[in-house]
Write a structure and sequence with these properties.
With 375 residues, the protein is α/β, with parallel strands linked by helices. Helices cover 30% and strands 21% of the residues. The chain has helices at residues 3-15, 21-27, 30-33, 57-75, 100-104, 110-124, 156-159, 161-164, 213-224, 252-262, 317-320, 347-360, and strands at residues 40-45, 79-83, 133-137, 176-183, 186-193, 234-240, 267-270, 281-287, 291-299, 308-314, 330-336, 341-342, 373-374. The strands form 2 sheets. A 7-stranded mixed beta sheet has the order 4-5-6-7-9-8-13. The longest helix has 19 residues, at 57-75.
């Protein structure tokens, strides 16, 4: 129906705040939209789980292409972030003829990665998305049964849009990759953070990520790097990965958080949990006594079942000069496709899960309720 994309435009205007800058951006021609000033529009999607085995999976790919048409016509994002679980990597269990792989229930499938590459490439063929920067990171499904990165089973590294965008091949071995977009006196930095285990064992393992000392060093180098443009007045850094920080093991998630706060990162975006703990799950992190704007940690609803995606507006320094308070650097809306209805908080369910985890999973520092807001 034609009213649905219109509803998306209205939601985005509402999310942008009172300035109305975002509405102007949505109606701008591509040449104006990709100009040197104004806000930056980002689409975040996660947990695609493209599958060649699961029967309903065909709709995940076809509807993703339909979403691309809507984004190209009505949103025209500058950046598309895909935060892991690009493929499903599951095998059917054949009880009559069990093979080793089928018994394990998981493994990288070449046809699924071919589908992922084809779908995202077709999505980018939209005239209004050809200049969109597409970045991705692997999720736990993308590392199942992968002995190590660049092993023959590591198909993510062969098709990754992040890795293909790197100017130097030698940088592909790193786990942290940053990309700058300069607009006037504003610099917007996007940092892809791979926290997947180096050795990916079988399902259901890899549920927790890990930030090694080497990864933390790479992250700090990326955060500390000045913008290439000398006239930069405002720097906004958006970091995205698959795992929420509370699901990064051995205390390394806290180390990531401290680095993000140290360098005043604007947001950390992730997926992984689908809508298991609620449709809108986020947390605010601060240094000291709630000083500064703070770091916004935001989980996006999954594409696999929920058909969720997020649109963010990163505001220019000109807009920020007229605003004050917490989290004024960005506005966002989480939307369900194809209805374009925003996701709603589910406080009761979220609180129940937090209370359950408080008693069951001390590894998560006593509760998810301490880490996240469900609403």
């Amino acid at each position: 129906m034609q009213w649905r994309p219109v509803l998306l435009t209205v939601l985005l205007f509402y999310a942008s705040g009172p300035s109305g800058v975002h509405a102007t951006l949505l109606s701008a021609a591509p040449s104006e939209r990709l100009g040197t000033t104004g806000p930056l529009v980002v689409v975040h999607i996660s947990d695609l789980h493209l599958s060649s085995v699961d029967a309903p999976a065909a709709a995940r790919a076809t509807e993703l292409l339909k979403l691309g048409n809507v984004l190209g016509e009505h949103v025209k994002p500058h950046v598309l972030l895909i935060s892991g679980d690009c493929t499903d990597a599951k095998y059917r269990r054949d009880l009559k003829n069990l093979t080793d792989v089928e018994l394990g229930g998981s493994g990288q499938r070449r046809e699924e990665w071919s589908s992922y590459q084809t779908v995202i490439t077709k999505l980018r063929s939209n005239p209004n998305l050809r200049e969109t920067l597409v970045l991705d990171v692997p999720g736990n499904h993308d590392r199942w049964n992968v002995l190590h990165r660049y092993h023959e089973a590591d198909m993510f590294s062969n098709v990754s849009f992040t890795l293909s965008a790197l100017p130097q091949t030698k940088d592909r071995i790193k786990r942290v990759h940053s990309f700058d977009i300069s607009r006037g006196v504003d610099c917007f930095r996007f940092i892809a953070l791979d926290l997947s285990p180096e050795t990916g064992i079988r399902r259901p393992a890899n549920f927790f990520g890990l930030a090694t000392s080497a990864t933390l060093r790479e992250l700090e180098e990326a955060l500390a790097q000045p913008c290439a443009k000398d006239n930069t007045v405002s720097m906004r850094q958006i970091v995205f990965g698959h795992y929420p920080l509370a699901f990064v093991a051995a205390g390394s998630g806290a180390k990531v958080r401290r680095l993000l706060l140290k360098y005043n990162a604007t947001a950390y975006l992730s997926g992984h949990l689908h809508i298991l703990f609620g449709e809108r799950v986020w947390r605010s992190h601060y240094r000291g006594n709630n000083e500064g704007e703070g770091l916004r940690e935001m989980l996006v609803p999954d594409w696999k079942e929920s058909r969720g995606f997020r649109v963010l507006t990163l505001h220019s320094s000109e807009v920020l000069a007229n605003r004050s308070g917490k989290h004024v650097s960005l506005s966002s809306v989480d939307v369900r496709f194809p209805s374009f209805k925003p996701f709603q908080p589910k406080h009761t369910f979220g609180t129940f899960v937090a209370d359950f985890l408080k008693g069951q999973l001390g590894e998560l520092r006593n509760s998810l309720g301490h880490f996240f807001c469900f609403g």
